[in-house]
Amino acid sequence: MPRYALELEFNGADFSGSQSQTNARTVQDVVQSALAALAGERVGFRPASRLDQGVSAAALPGDCLLARDWDPEVLGLALNHQLPEDVVVRRAARVPDAFDARRNAAAKHYRYRVLVRPVRPTLDRACLWVRRLQDPARLHELAALIPGRHDLSGFACLRHDDTDQQDPHRDYLAALWSDRILDDAIEWSLRISGRGFLYKQIRGLVGAMVHVAHGRARPDDFRAAMAAGWSARRLGNIAPAEGLLLAGVDYEPCPDWRAIGMESGSGSPEVRKSGSRDREST
Amino acid sequence: MPRYALELEFNGADFSGSQSQTNARTVQDVVQSALAALAGERVGFRPASRLDQGVSAAALPGDCLLARDWDPEVLGLALNHQLPEDVVVRRAARVPDAFDARRNAAAKHYRYRVLVRPVRPTLDRACLWVRRLQDPARLHELAALIPGRHDLSGFACLRHDDTDQQDPHRDYLAALWSDRILDDAIEWSLRISGRGFLYKQIRGLVGAMVHVAHGRARPDDFRAAMAAGWSARRLGNIAPAEGLLLAGVDYEPCPDWRAIGMESGSGSPEVRKSGSRDREST
Hints:
- Chain A has 2 domains: 101 residues, Pseudouridine synthase I, catalytic domain, N-terminal subdomain (Alpha-Beta Plaits); 138 residues, 2-Layer Sandwich (Alpha-Beta Plaits).
- The first copy, chain A, is globular.
- By secondary structure, chain A is of the alpha+beta class.
- Chain A starts with a strand and ends in a 23-residue tail after the last strand.
- Chain A contains 5 helices and 11 strands.
């Protein structure tokens, strides 16, 4: 049976995370249903990352075995017709039998957005909202401490499964804050990359960095938490899931990805919601 | 009784439009409830524009009479504590008794977003999605026709109320498309300003312009529709409500607006959703 990799984009708002669960709507279950409808058989889909409820992805790869041969682009197009409006296949590839989207991941890239403005945002809610940042330069100072091999479990939460007993050291490849001036706000984005992250760790790191940038704790408290591992005292809040986005996962070697929808389709605009109120009266 | 102007931002996704209705959730009703909770009496709020179901606003002004004197900023802060998470007061002003947010509006500024990318978007759905635009330069050509005084009712829908009998000529002040290259898409935005617009007219204009930019109709068809008024044949679809945003309304003279939340508040980050899954276990 040939193996395929699929790269998904999804909006986490209405999902209970990426991983299959009983009595909850998850990305894995929705993709498996679409694959089953297409293949006429039960198909397992293995996502590269376990994303929490409310977290979104621009590019979450996963892999599956199918009975018949598919052109990867046709497979993606056919799945996109089956999938609900909050998840879509961006790229697809035929991969070697041994490919495992989770185990073979060489680097995972995440982005966390913080919106600084005087009133709470209503239009753009995929962020942590803060009224102001007293000393935003602290963000750069703290992010510079992250790259390297560390035990940063002091910023994570316990999963309460057997993975909590494993070595918490991880390789962090990059961590960089950037800012962008909008009409009415300043958007701060953390781009953070690593070979793997602990449970709620990025959200914990963001909460701690924002706490220091507020002047509620000192950079030395952050350094102490980095050194203390599990026993570290929590700095700030776990930042909300809505602000976190999986931007992409790298593989070495890279799958032979095919972008979906580049050549096909009519090019006509698609009106997603066309309820009775949109029926024209002229 | 002193009169106040309030400028609202709201996310239209869960509202049945801006204008009060029975058995539907509207912006006007939600603001009136918040005002009543604050004032301890029934308070009317008059929005400057009637926005359809699904349309959002960055700045929708409205006005109301209150029994007691309020500092405008304190009024805005107090209302923001009462209002649900999808609507917020951005600015507030004490205005003359004769001020009428709708009648006194000198110009209304709208924005419509079109996202061009090969697969349907899941993260950013406040747009019209098109797979590609065959000849986007047509957008500039058509927008240049709009400024001036015209009867553009051929792009609008009938309201089926007495306003349909009125003169459909309006003064259009500006119409301009701009594009922005994103990681995986091109975003086209129409900024259009006028003293007033007909029912679903901006969405009808966008649908027609995109139709021509697709090569489905000629610019001359658009010109003919501009000349034909109500009797014009519909060009393309009415673009979906989610893509439309009221960017702001101008007044002459300008109210003495006070920005809400600039000086007050603790500056601490606010975690909006803190369900049990966000409780930390370390």
